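Changelog-adjacent note: as of this version, every example in the card shows the full chain rather than a window. The one below runs 327 residues end to end.
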Amino acid sequence: PLPLPQKLRRARGPLAARPIDGQTVWVALVGRPDATVQAALSVALPVVGGSAVLLGEGFDPVPWREASEGYARPFVAQASPESDDKASALVFDATGARAVDDLRALYSVGHACVRKLARCGRIVVLGRPAGAMEDSTAVAVQRALPGFAKALAKELGSKGITSNVLEVAAGAEDRLAGPLAFLLSDRSAFVTGQVLSLDGRTEGMASGWRARPLDGKCALVTGAARGIGKATAARLAEEGATVFVLDRPADAGALGEVARKVGGVAVAVDITDDDAASAILTAIGERGLDVVVHNAGVTRDKTLGRMDDARWDLVMDVNLRAILSLE
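Full-length structure tokens:
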């Protein structure tokens, strides 16, 4: 018989206050420790519910002990996993990796751990933006991290295990809890082999993780009468946002039903109309928007050789010009 794929663990409904509550997270250093990152990581893991096990040497135990006591989460330090140990996640802190030899820890720790990760486990590699490195060797080392993560994603994907890189810019370390709450939880079941960036440009959750991070925020979702747009509107509402759902006047009935379900506001307007932007601003009023999801889009399944002018113009109007007009 053909082997069946691993059934993925998926989270549904509103976000949990501690999305990895009670789960063990292995943490390993790759390169020299960055005190700022370690201090932030020691808080971020217990904030989202994880229990940290520090593997290997080089850790300053003080911030980890303080965070463990403050959040009533156990904290353990050991050389390597025991024969019967299991963990739900493995976090490599490679933000201090600057030399090729530093990457040896990816092998030594990974070799000892990957077969012990639980099914549907998570691997996150923390790095720094390569453009911020001081020399070409450090640039190459940081750029090697995505390749490593993608290789693990391919190797372990059949077990439902995901592997991603989170590039942490200097000054954004205290915002680790939010991305880790997603990447280490069941919500990231379909996200793997990716490089995500974390910086301090946006108003974040520097104080920690919140189960409703969009409380008090306003969001606009286009193409929201059905499908992906409808689901996106529901997701944003569950996270606390007031959602303005937009679609064509012809879909006003379905759009109104979506608005009622998410407690939002229906905006029945064709985004290709010249006055679409002003109609949206009128509906939103003075509160402004914090989130815009450009979901509306069309395809016309014709080859380029057979496509007529009208079909090409429609695709450009909906998929590109409408987005630019709303910026």
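Structural remarks: The longest strand covers residues 117-127.
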